[in-house]
């Protein structure tokens, strides 16, 4: 039976690695290269001629609303999702996972459960990647705004400040999004529209405040230097408050392992010998 669990674990790891590798294959080049050489064609499942009939069958499923939302969220990771190929990959993973579990356990219910997990595993991995990228953006946001504030204070305009931060500073999650904004501006999109597109794509309160600050300053014709400074301070204060909130939650959450694991062990160590002596009659006084 232990061998079955080992084989199931290996099947799960292989399915996970296949999902992760196929998602990584669709990473797009940086938008700054759009004005230079054309990017090379990337490998996708849809590019395999032998799979074209299956790809045609998966196109109706690829038009589902939640898959379209995943494709839109792929802009955060600079990932151009091939939805028909993704659906085909999901079907392959479901068949592999379900078939492997059925061969080992010979149970249709377990096979169905494994197939469902294999089908939705790429979506789950993709969502976790997006959440991690958003967390990185929130983490690096105040420092990047400080750099923009310094550049604007030195006499640069907003667009030039963003380009300087992208070129001179170390690449991070937020500068990647700013690079997307600059790329859209370079191909002719309005700066306000590009910034609002970034805010709509990320759906983060910090980024929404950043976009609102820049758009309002452009509309009113005022400088964004002081607004950026206040925004950076507010973001750091919010981060400090979130840290305090997590610290308070940690003291409550630690009660669960304390009551379930630590306290029973302490009771066994302390009360165990007493209970053993009592059941064996050693604690009962003997008559003389």
Helix and strand layout, with pairings?
Layout: H1 2-24, H2 52-62, H3 65-73, H4 83-105, H5 108-153, H6 158-168, H7 173-186, H8 191-202, H9 205-220, H10 225-253, H11 255-279
Helix pairs in contact: 1-4, 1-5, 2-4, 4-5, 5-6, 5-10, 6-7, 7-8, 8-9, 9-10
Task: Describe this entry's structure for a reader.
By secondary structure, the chain is mainly α. It folds into two domains: 2-29 and 43-132, no CATH class; 135-251, Receptor-associated Protein (Up-down Bundle). Helix content is 76%, strand content 0%. It is built from eleven helices and no strands. The longest helix is centred in the middle third of the chain and has 46 residues, at 108-153. The protein is flat and about 95 Å long.
Strand percentage, roughly? under 5%
Taking all residues together, what is the mean pLDDT? Answer: 77
Q: What gap, in angstroms, lies between the N and C termini?
A: 58 Å
| Overall SS class | mainly alpha
Concise synopsis of the structure shown:
The protein folds into 2 domains: 2-29 and 43-132, no CATH class; 135-251, Up-down Bundle (Receptor-associated Protein). The protein has 11 helices and no strands. It has helices at residues 2-24, 52-62, 65-73, 83-105, 108-153, 158-168, 173-186, 191-202, 205-220, 225-253, 255-279.
Task: Record keyword descriptors for this entry.
2 domains, 288 residues, Receptor-associated Protein, single chain, 11 helices, mainly alpha, 76% helix
